[in-house]
Amino acid sequence: MTTAEESAAPGSAPQTSPGDHWPAVSAVTLGTFLLVTAEQLPIGLLTAVGSALSVSEGTAGLMVTVPSLVAAVAAPVVPALVGALDRRLLLLGLMALMTLSNLASAAAPNFAVLVSSRVLVGVAIGGFWAVAGGLAVRLVSTENVPRATAIIFGGVGAANVFGVPLGTLIGELTGWRVAFASLSGLALIALVALLAVLPSLAASQPVRLRVLAEQFRNPGVRVGIIATALIVFGHFSAYTFVSPALQRLSGIDERYVGPLLFAFGAAGMIGNFAAGAALSRGVHRSVLVIAVSLAVAMPLFVLLGRTTVVGAILLIVWGLAYGGVSVGLQTWMIKAAPQAVEAASALWVAVFNLSIGLGALVGGVIVDALTLQGVLWLGGACALVAALAVRSTRTDENPRRA
To answer: How crowded is the C-beta side of 380, counted as CA atoms within 13 Å?
Structure first.
């Protein structure tokens, strides 16, 4: 089996190998699309669920917070608990759990049952991501790993652009229970697809707690974890409040916020695939460019985004830059730990999800206690420190070397 430690010749176009499993890559992409949709769908259904189950919108927000925190714990724990279990069986089991948990959400008689079902969603998200994030190195040949990783992470952008808005629309037209039931049906389709095309994926090295702890001795993994924590924390501390920022700082009418957020997601998809292409030519340089772009885009929103046009342009630039974060940092982790991809990926997914929750929490405190502009400065500062951490490593194709 080839590993991500080997690199393709600079400028060479990816070639399809007889051993490449592109249908499996597509099925895993469908899985990531559904996972992110399931995690974020309640954002658009808070009012409807709160009204139907007699809870406040703040309490209903637990439908988003709970699975994110559970996923942060499940990412390293699930691979460790299953040991040497065939990863094909693990992914099938987790997608089956996603199917049943969303069905339970749709049928929940009260909010306690609904939140309990969201705990199971968090387990599925964390476990699936921990394995799926590093699957490209096992499904395609070495020169195609960046492209396959970009396709898998394209499911994230697609969920933001299509999945969550369409799920919200279904909820508005037919009821929130139908929205969750529809997600369960799509998860069943993904389960069948994975069953049909995913090859056997024996665990080359079972993930144990000792293996997880050992990753922190790898300087490349440490830098990847630090950069992930800073960038994701900073982004979500600011992006959680992007709607009021567009309205108050750029003077954009509330009617146009939705279309602009759609444009942000579309730009993110473009950034994802652009980063995937750039990563095949240089991981270190690509991640550094992403971090620097974010460090510039968010503060510029405060300094220059005082008009509708400039605010919209800077939002799209922000989306382009952030679109490359997932594929860029996941590829960094693969390059940093080619012999322990699953363990490094599990830590990465845990930090990623934890940073989402903490970023939104701290951002809320800053907006309430200080100013709206403060979260944009914080986001830029975090990205700048992440860029300095990445810059501190040697500029070569192996982030393992500090």
So the answer is: 14
